[in-house]
Amino acid sequence: MPERTATETKQFTITRVLDAPRETVWRAWTDPDEAPHWLHPHRVSTPREHVDYDVRPGGAYRYTMISSDGTEYPTVGVYREVVPPSRLVMTWGKPGDAEGDVPVLTIDLDEHGEAGEQTLMTFHLAGIAGQPGDAGVYDGWSEAFEELEARLGG
């Protein structure tokens, strides 16, 4: 039996029902003008000038989150799968990470509710273990999704 790598065994999933149509949630994930409004945990920002997306298979993206003390958290990745408005698969790492060692994000967006006025978002991260209350990656993404919910509701 082949040995499993850490990337294959460390993973978590977060699901949310969002009060917005699927196309609106898709735009939140793919429009660089939307990222500053939600793509960060609480008390951290993502300035628009630090966001660049090339949303297509093989296209790259980057964004940098900045904490209140000025610490920068640069993030880069490559889109592996882009199926508007339902699925994104992309690598997620830091500049300089080896391609084979970076986590992979999969975001599935499904229509939800009687008239599709809501979206069931399933976010899966393979390559990092996480759980509620970890004060790490899981909680960071969970807080970002709270920011997204506020953006969509406002």
Automatic annotation (TrEMBL):
Pfam families: AHSA1. CDD domains: SRPBCC_CalC_Aha1-like. Residues 19-152 form the Activator of Hsp90 ATPase homologue 1/2-like C-terminal domain. InterPro entries: ASHA1/2-like_C, START-like_dom_sf. Belongs to the AHA1 family. This is Uncharacterized protein YndB with AHSA1/START domain. It comes from Agromyces terreus.
